[in-house]
Specification:
It contains 21 helices and 26 strands. With about 675 residues, the chain is α+β, with helices and mostly antiparallel strands. The chain folds into four domains: about 240 residues, Histidine kinase-like ATPase, C-terminal domain (Heat Shock Protein 90, 2-Layer Sandwich), CATH 3.30.565.10; about 170 residues, Ribosomal Protein S5, domain 2 (2-Layer Sandwich); about 190 residues, Rossmann fold, CATH 3.40.50; about 35 residues, no CATH class. Strands 7-6-5-8-4-3-9-10 form an eight-stranded mixed sheet. A five-stranded mixed sheet has the order 11-12-16-13-14. A five-stranded mixed sheet has the order 20-19-21-22-26, sandwiched between helices. The chain is globular and about 85 Å long. The structure holds 3-[3-(1H-pyrrolo[2,3-b]pyridin-5-yl)phenyl]propanoic acid. The site of 3-[3-(1H-pyrrolo[2,3-b]pyridin-5-yl)phenyl]propanoic acid has 12 residues, from helix 4.
Length: about 675
């Protein structure tokens, strides 16, 4: 029979090698001239990705660039989750590429069943939605941010190299310019032998993001590290190493957590005072008609006052908007703790039930689910939509948390005491809020005296500058466009919000001014429909004090006006870091990069550069030109992409551990970009 092969072919839709014959017959009956058509189809697929990269990786900015790394790493994590890989090594290459290496089974090298001209590996690299994410016989569950596959990375790279150790042989393949085949898969030698004498297996993918696609192609190691650490927490025992071979880079890092999400909770609570030393943990798995589901929960309370320490994940993806798993957990947590409180006479018949937020105050918990076909919904695709997950998590929590409470009576007592206190504080806070409302109703519009408001009443064009210090506030008032720019000077260090409960915070005059100026309320009452400014811009000095105040403000917004941050209303102004003289003119330079660019343009520039410390060093005219003029300024938009990580950063900064807070502020004083991606 013509075209019949002697070697097995690989069916990527079942993840199984197929012997020649049988299933292959239908392939042979197809029109042989269609092979060329298939190749064209493949190229058209990748072309579609290049035309609209945003549809596949979200953006061509820094987030999209880093998404490329996650996409490749996710494939290796899938291989680890299936029990075949133990180690993933991520390396940033000196020439700007990124290498991801695993010790899994290796991508199949056999000819593909659907595309007999190609190896299965070539299909994985060039056909959209091919790869580990096939149903049925493939992996039970899989990650992949939104499961777009390595072919998307290939489409958006100027070069990709793949090395596969499988069946004792090392194979190699290369692509250039968005997925054009440069070298077809071929054997380049024998795979090296491991300590146990067997040949190594595994996959290595190297890629160089295409500079014509991305705004910027240099990776930021801290962004990658946060995500890699999170993946290590979510996959107990998985070893993930990171090395940066670029000049001047930091030391290599290795993450491996035998305790998995228990270690995650310990880590998040590390800078806090925990209520008890153990971390609670339970897990439950279920097979249903619609596939396999499992849930894992780890939890510990600390003495803090926040009720947003619940972080959820679905197949290793941080579900920032929550979803069914969070709903199930919250409902069962509230029920179980109330049931326990009644049974143990901690709540009397006449008492109201504890509310969910009372019980969650000070709780750090990770809820991680894995399921066959996760549905991600919501604005940022960060919400899990699979309904059956809710009842699985609810049942697991009802059973196992009740057990845990019975088996840990002294821990349970502390949890209950804390929740009862929180309920009292909630009552007090409500009274305080009502009082603030009445007060602001009394002084006319209720706007703070220090506020120099703008004349426009349209939030879409109105901006609030929060300016540190009175003198800088004065310059900003003189400089501004009073139609659209309002100035609120704030003094000194505003209250440390991590330590304070709402009612105490509202007594602080700086906070009161801030709340009434923004106009959307505070805490649970916050309503972004009522905000008076579309942009809230923090303008602080570029020194340690400025950095501290900026972080305090961000913490406040993050904790008490979360939607303001989530909806992208919060910005950081960037006053220039340097000035220098050119002839009789003063030139301002935003940062070190701008300074280097300036020196390149003016190689003979002899004058010194002044390091600008304070906004006060500029007069109104200079402040306008360098920092406030909408046609010239650069604003950093503050986003909360990874609530879990942000929570940790804020906690380190604002928590009870004064030492780590100091070190953090000192090391990050120059770098506010850590908040941006
Ligand atoms: C398809 C099928 C199999 C493994 C993989 C893909 C695979 C993909 C990647 C990507 C990075 N590392 C990887 N490791 C494995 C199953 C292989 C088999 O049945 O032997």
């Amino acid at each position: 029979m013509a075209g019949r092969r002697d070697h097995p072919v690989y069916d990527l839709s079942t993840g199984c090698p197929q012997e020649p014959g049988g299933l292959q017959e239908h392939r042979l009956s197809a029109d042989p001239t269609s092979y060329g058509a298939e190749a064209i189809q493949v190229l058209e697929g990748l072309e579609a990705v290049r035309k609209r990269p945003g549809m596949y990786i979200g953006s061509t900015g820094p987030a999209g660039l880093h998404h490329m790394v996650y996409e490749v790493v996710d494939n290796s994590v899938d291989e680890a989750m299936a029990g075949h890989a133990t180690t993933i090594e991520v390396t940033l290459l000196a020439d700007g590429g990124c290498e991801v290496r695993d010790d899994g089974r290796g991508i199949p090298v056999e000819p593909s069943l659907q595309y007999p001209d190609m190896s299965a590996a070539e299909v994985v690299l060039t056909v959209l939605h091919a790869g580990g994410k096939f149903g049925g016989g493939g992996y039970k569950v899989s990650g992949g941010l939104h499961g777009v596959g390595i072919s998307v990375v290939n489409a958006l790279s100027s070069r990709v190299e793949v090395e596969i150790d499988r069946g004792g042989e090392r194979h190699a393949m290369a692509f250039s310019d968005g997925g054009e085949l440069l070298e077809k898969l071929h054997v380049i030698g024998a795979s090296p032998l491991g300590d146990d004498g067997t040949a190594r297996t595994g996959t290595t993918v190297r890629f160089w993001p295409d500079p014509t696609v991305f705004d910027e192609v240099s990776f930021r190691s801290t962004t990658l590290l946060e995500r890699l650490q999170m993946m290590a927490f979510l996959n107990a025992g998985l070893r993930i190493t990171f090395r940066d071979d670029r000049p001047g880079a930091a030391e290599p890092v290795e993450y491996c957590y035998e305790g998995g999400i228990r270690d995650f909770v310990r880590h998040v609570n590390a800078s806090k005072e925990s209520l008890f030393s153990d971390v609670g943990y339970f897990a439950q798995a279920e097979e249903t008609d619609s596939g396999a589901m499992e849930v894992e929960v780890a939890f510990q309370w600390n003495t803090g006052y926040h009720s947003d320490g619940l972080h959820s994940f679905a197949n290793g993806i941080n579900t920032i908007e929550g979803g069914m798993h969070e709903e199930g957990f919250k409902k069962a947590l509230t029920n179980t703790v109330n049931r326990y409180a009644r049974e143990h006479q901690l709540l009397k018949d006449k008492d109201d039930n504890l509310q969910g937020e009372d019980i969650r105050e000070g709780l750090t918990a990770i809820v991680s689910v894995r399921l066959t076909d996760p549905q991600f919904e919501g604005q940022t695709k960060g919400k899990l939509g699979n309904v059956p997950v809710r009842s699985l998590v609810e049942r697991a929590t009802n059973d196992k948390l009740a057990e845990w409470l019975e088996e840990h009576p002294s821990e349970a007592k502390r949890v209950l005491q804390k929740a009862l206190q929180a309920a009292k504080a909630r009552e007090a806070a409500r009274n305080a809020r009502d009082a603030t409302r009445r007060k602001s109703a009394l002084d006319g519009a209720g706007l703070p005296g220090k506020l120099a408001d703008c004349s426009s009443k349209d939030p879409r064009e109105s901006e609030l500058y929060i300016v540190e210090g009175n003198s800088a506030g004065g310059s900003a008032k003189d400089a501004r466009n009073s139609e659209t720019m309002a100035i609120l000077p704030i003094r000194g260090k505003i209250l440390n919000v991590e330590r304070a409960r709402l009612e105490r915070m509202l007594a602080n005059t700086e906070i009161q001014a801030l709340v009434s100026a923004i106009g959307g309320g505070v805490g649970d009452d916050f309503d972004s429909e009522r905000i008076r400014y579309g942009k809230v811009i923090i303008m602080c000095d570029a020194d340690v004090d400025g950095s501290h105040i900026r972080t305090l403000l961000l913490t406040f917004f993050f904790r008490q006006m979360r939607p303001l941050v989530e909806q992208g209303h919060v910005f950081i102004a960037q006053p220039p870091l340097y000035s220098t003289e050119v002839g009789r003119n003063k030139v301002y330079l935003k940062d070190d990069a701008a300074k280097s660019a300036f020196l390149e343009r003016h190689p003979n520039h002899k004058n010194e550069f002044q390091r600008l410390k304070g906004l006060g060093e500029m007069d109104a005219e200079e402040l306008w030109q360098t920092t406030m003029d909408p046609t010239a300024r650069t604003l950093l938009q503050v986003s909360v992409e990874q609530a879990a990580i942000a929570d940790e950063v804020f906690s380190i900064l604002m928590g009870d551990d004064v030492e780590s807070r100091k070190t953090f502020i000192q090391t990050n004083a120059q770098d506010v970009r850590f908040l941006d991606i």
